[in-house]
Design a protein that fits this description.
alpha/beta
Length: 240
């Protein structure tokens, strides 16, 4: 065999054996440790190369869920025709109005809340000649006596709301009629109903009973026996 100098020690290399493999013998433990470190360095280098070629997954893994709707869930054919119309207008015009209307046509029922006549009249004060646009339902308000003359475009009108608007000399139109009158939304006022006025929303938020909580509790009744004891009356321990 051949003798080689390796850091002050001796290394003997033998060749042979049944399969002709090379055998390396080290004369000291120090040489063995150095060789092991060099071997580990090569492994780490290969690991780094492999890691650079790996797929970079963001938090959440491989599946990516986009929560934005691209079509309405409803099977209403008239709604689908409106979606087709406003997709065309959004694509062929630079109007942000058409983009917003298209997005609201995709929305669920809770995200298309109704708007009453009283709120509609309040929002349209000082906007004579403009068209009120609501992607939702216009409802009647019996507390309002005099309905002003208004031009309104909505997905739906209740029967009494439509009668009162027409009786005042106003106009109720659909979105396909609006697309002919104002294809870019010029001369319109885009409105939305009160989204957070549902009964269910009153129960959202901090737990009932904790300090500074205005969340409505789920109680069977408002009587004396129902959640009116400790913590609810000063005479029953404390009141918060």
């Amino acid at each position: 065999g051949a003798r080689h100098s390796f850091g002050g020690g001796d290394r003997r290399e033998k060749r042979g054996g049944a399969k002709g493999k090379a055998c390396v013998q080290f004369s000291s433990n120090w040489e063995q440790r150095v060789a092991a470190v060099c071997l580990r360095g090569g492994v780490h280098e290969r690991r780094r190369e492999r890691d650079t070629m790996a797929i970079d997954l963001v938090a959440g893994g491989r599946t990516k869920r986009n929560a934005h709707r691209t079509a309405p869930k409803s099977d209403n054919v008239y709604l689908k025709l409106l979606v087709k119309l406003y997709k065309f207008l959004h694509r062929r015009t630079d109007s942000k109005f058409n983009k917003v209307v298209l997005k609201r046509l995709f929305m669920s029922k809770t995200n298309k809340p109704p708007l009453s006549l009283s709120k509609l009249a309040k929002f349209m004060e000082g906007k004579d000649g403009k068209i009120a646009v609501l992607v939702g339902t216009i409802t009647d308000d019996v507390r309002m006596y005099d309905v002003p003359k208004m031009r309104v475009c909505a997905l739906r009108f209740t029967q009494t709301a439509r009668q009162r608007i027409l009786k005042a000399g106003g106009e109720c139109m659909t979105f396909d009629q609006l697309a002919l009158l104002a294809p870019t939304g010029a001369g319109t006022v885009l409105l939305r109903g009160p989204k957070l006025s549902r009964e269910a929303v009153k129960h959202f938020g901090r737990a009932t009973g904790v300090p500074d909580s205005n969340t409505k509790p789920f109680v069977r009744s408002k009587g004396r026996k129902f959640e009116k004891a400790r913590g609810r009356r000063a005479s029953r321990g404390y009141k918060c």
